[in-house]
Amino acid sequence: MFSQSKTDFTKQMRLKTEEKKIALLKATLSLINDNGFHDAPMGKIAKLANVSPATIYLYFENKQDLTNQLYLSLKEDFGKSAFEGYSESMGVYEGFKLIWHNIAQYKLNQVAESVFLAQCDSTPIVTKCVRMAGLIHLQPLLTLWEKGRKNNTIKPISDYLLYAYSIYPLSFLMNMKQENQTEICNETLTKAWQTSWDAIKQ
After folding, report:
1. What is the model's pTM?
2. What is the b/e burial string over 184-198, where b = at least 16 CB atoms within 10 angstroms of the residue's CB?
3. Separation CA 197–CA 83 (nearest Å)
4. Backbone angles phi, psi at 51, to 5 degrees
């Protein structure tokens, strides 16, 4: 009986620990998106997460470590969403179309997360080595592109150029939506997809 109670207590403590860590990550996401990296001090993060400032250092070495871990966590979630339903047996066109639309839906539905990841792509919010580590969550796409280059389905250009011309424009489109400059309907997504594919196909 005592052993069972001790096990339950341990589970509860682990759950509370995980909840605090998640609260800190969410607070960091919100503050950086709203105020930028430099205007998101640890004190504000702790207050928004409803924990003491000292609690942060139980989970993270410093704000950079916290931000790096947030990036990797979101990048992992992004990758899971991007490759949902994808199989390596798919053809290049079929596979990329599925991945592209998955990414579009992620950006439409996970706005705060998408804004943060876009900031990380264009500013030194996270360290270079962490950004490189995050690429592992895009590996199926990079492998698909390599397959496309080899069978002459897509242009023989670098992954960076392929991403810039086929995926990155989605971020601009979503920004315009956030600023109420455009609406994104199925017709818009269809045209955006075709434009992206036309930009990289051989």
Report:
1. 0.86
2. beeeebeebbeebee
3. 17
4. -135, 165
* Residue pair 33/74 in contact by the 8 Å Cβ criterion: no
Q: Count CB neighbours of 90 within 10 A.
A: 16
CA 115 to chain centre: 9
Amino acid at 110: Q
Residues 6+ apart with CB under 8 A from 201: 93, 153, 154, 155
Which domains are seen in the chain, by residue range? 1-60 (1.10.10.60), 62-202 (1.10.357.10)
pLDDT band at 3; cut points 50, 70, 90: low
| Tokens (6 digits) for 102 | 């998955």
- Rounded Cα distance, 111 and 28, in Å: 15
17-42 burial: b if 16+ Cβ within 10 Å, else e:
eeebbebbbebbbbbbbeeebeebeb
**Could you tell me if 103 and 82 are in contact, meaning their C-beta atoms sit under 8 angstroms apart?**
yes
Q: Is 95 exposed, middle or buried (CB count within 10 Å of its CB: 0-12, 13-18, 19+)?
A: buried
The tens digit of pLDDT for each residue in 90-127 reads: 999 999 999 999 999 999 999 999 999 988 887 889 99
